[in-house]
Design a protein that fits this description.
The protein has about 300 residues and is mostly beta strands. It contains one helix and 23 strands.
Length: about 300
Amino acid sequence: MKTIYFWFILLPFTKALSQNETVVPAFDFLKQFSNCRDFSISKNQDELYFTLQNSTEEISRIVCSKKIKNKWTTPELVSFSSDHRDIEPFLSIDGLRLYFSSNRPLDDTSNKSKDYDIWYVERNDVKDKWSQPINIGTPINTAKDEFYPSVALNGNLYFTSENDKSLGKDDIFVSRWENNAFTNPENLGDGVNTLGYEFNAFIASDESFLIFTGYKREDGLGSGDLYISYKNKLGVWEKATSLGDKINSSAMDYCPFYDSSTQTFYFTSKRNRVINKSFFNLEMFLKEINQYENGFSRIYKCNLKL
């Protein structure tokens, strides 16, 4: 199938080409996994992390692959895996810290899962092994869930939470890195958040834009849709606009990641192109139901100039 790449200008994403001409599977080796989500790739595009889970999503692990001699290695579980649900890896720009969300207990001796917190591992060099996991602590983590860390170049951390500062359900927050410590989280305001659900936000390294999922909005296509908001000169997040049907589908579209060096946009989708039709043999049937866009969470990409 011929792939048509496209570029956007800073206007609402409305007049789109057919999504099937623009959105493609992120990597060939990911086609073997029927339930993967979340994505982060190193600045040099030679190390990537993603999440694998079972079909009902209660079992989840973070996986890594590295590019050696221009070939991706066989994916492996990360060294800091737990018996709990580890999700949503985010690799810092210098490659020396990896943030993630987990419901693992604070105490290694406990087997009981807790609420979701943001954790991180670190290393002194990109060739070193990762440290033991470190809970990022207060004021970011609370007795409620914290998800999907994304960190700007200045250290400001954006994440999803539902707390007493939420406008509705899940909202996007920022905790600023000041004087070698994180500040109390701030709600990004009604340019981004609504009375509904907003989650899975990716922040540009310079904090100029934010891409996130809004759930069942009036201008949405049916489920979770990806939106973009730009920060104006006053530091206020402007009203978010949908990325449109070039990228969004009628199914859940979520977990965005933007690689500015290659102008590649990665995201997860549960889109489904399986058609119930006449099948003359089992081979035809299996080919139809096992295609990449079959309702399972998969990672996609497209060219996107921001």
